[in-house]
């Protein structure tokens, strides 16, 4: 290839076109030149070979995984071989010998004749090259790089006749063009027998050749960029792209994961150009895959820090170069880099002509988003920004909207927006019943939209029943194709059936739908809206029916949640014996289910079996030492069971406050992004982060009004006097704080109001215990020094507790003022209304006392103390018959009254 100092203008034009890759023009000029026959044959063969490669790339549409071999005419390739052979036949001393042999090796590699390709590589003498001169023409550097690639990949094909399962199948010319021509040949077996390489030596040779080729390819790109400007897009060709994108696969195939990681880091550290953006995106994605799937953080090694500049090819260097400090940080950086580069090239044109290209570009981004999900979800970290950016090219793409909705739901950042996203997913896909389950879960746990939940779940049930009736089951297509191609509705229906049957199971879907319907009807039955008051029994009946259907549809019989919710139904209706039977079944299925343990403790206290309840609470605390709800129950049980119970309960309450402060002090650390994926603490999540937990029994129900079972326990409960109306209680947010992380409480932004309410309950318990010990000054000090900071100066809880203290001192007028202040802030505070009514009774104003006590019962009709106070007030005004009825009701309620209200146990327990 060395040229004389003085060259004709036509030869200079040929060299110019060769450097620029203008092979059609180069072919015309070569055919016009007749001075040097060997050079003419060489240039013609080279031009025809490169034109053939361009034709392959054009037929494949620029996508490495799209192959149209049947449409490619091999005549041009055969002509290129013949011209190159003429160039070297009968003259071994020609200066074109090396270049012609390299081009022939390239041509035979394309044809799938790997043995011939290796023979021509051997005859070219390229094996003796140790270092490539920087001053060589760029075309020669590219040809040498391609030859190293041909040698490495040919050795790989010979030593591995079976196809490899790569991380992501990269386009290979030999795979593409030779697939059809070698279908009738048995060359792999023959070549394997003829091979004289040992496996290990062959592997080292492959790696050495491919690494040399990769470095030379990057040198070529940067050389062209310096020569012709930074905005030029250099066409590396499929052979050099194969070298750059398959070298780390060879490392992995031979068990050298660290070698693959080092190679990818080295190539990614080369300075970026416009021509290497696509390669950089693919390598960063595949390196992230290698780290996620093939390497754990214990064997991860920090990347090397390059302090000195290298110019061949240029790399990033210097003290300001940012390096990831841990395993998670490198994976995140790689995925963010790959996603940023892939999203730049997503095709926005929606015309049918660009449909296939748009789907292919979108699939690249979807793959990276799925990798984000795989990596971040186990770390309980959720990256929402990628879905925000993808909205511009995700019109009617179900997969993106679905992932966005799930990520928002799990991140707890914006439940309403997550619900609206699920609604869009439901609209996009008119057949899939699964998104409705997630939307209903949000309605139940976060948004308190119970009627919407029932409507969505009934629609999901109808959808699944229609899918089952169709009985069409062809192969599953990708979610992107289903979302984009609206003409495949019947195919989509069948694919969904397969998808649901394989992943969820028919019975599991029906079981989940009925379970959620049972919970939704129960919550609607327990709500305080006027509409639900008219249809209370209807919702109760529907809830029980769906929970029973959920048990029947659970073919494996291992779901404890229906039994737990049925037990909670029975407990609210004071059918405690039957409730214990159901909750024991739930605990047999899951002995670690804390809400079931808490429910069993309260049921035992309702049956006045305090010793058994206390023993169960202590056993539970052995495993969950710092669980605040269990400690709260323990403090109340100690007052009854233990000697000096109030002192022991006070110590337990102080321990609760100490644990609370320790947990709340770690709030910011636990919520920081770094801690979220650097702390690997197993979690137990019961989805108790609802916004509000209300009193669930607004009226005492007789046996006839409870269509669950014949229970002797409920026989003691009768209807209340008809002149009283019944409402709902504003129980404090104990249930919201019952979600635990091992022995610690999980906190996030959505739990702060609930967390503050639980701290209020701790202070109220401490003050109450001081009052029961007749330590009024200590109780008042506790309120002034501690509780004010939690309650606030104008909170109804602070006014209420001040009223209780004033009432304990006998200052009834001051107590009355405090209770009035409390109900003026919160008119539905049943305890304040109860104490205000009793205070008026103590002051002798029985008419006003009766009024406030009735208001308290309108909110919470299950409190036997309120019925007792009302009986005393009625007895004082000579309403003896009504007073007797109230006292009897108080006695009946007290017989089955738990130590704490059942409302502290969350109804919306989902897993």
UniProtKB/TrEMBL annotation:
Q: Residues in domain Tetratricopeptide repeat protein 7 N-terminal?
A: 9-158, 234-377
> Which superkingdom?
Eukaryota
What InterPro entries does the entry give?
Endocytosis_PI4K-reg_protein, TPR-like_helical_dom_sf, TPR_rpt, TTC7_N
Could you give one GO CC term from the UniProt record?
A: plasma membrane
Q: Name one GO biological process term.
A: phosphatidylinositol phosphate biosynthetic process
**Pfam families the record matches:** TPR_8, TTC7_N
Q: Which family does it belong to?
A: Belongs to the YPP1 family.
Role played: Involved in endocytosis.
Which protein is depicted?
A: Tetratricopeptide repeat protein 7B-like
Gene transcribed to yield this protein: LOC113795454
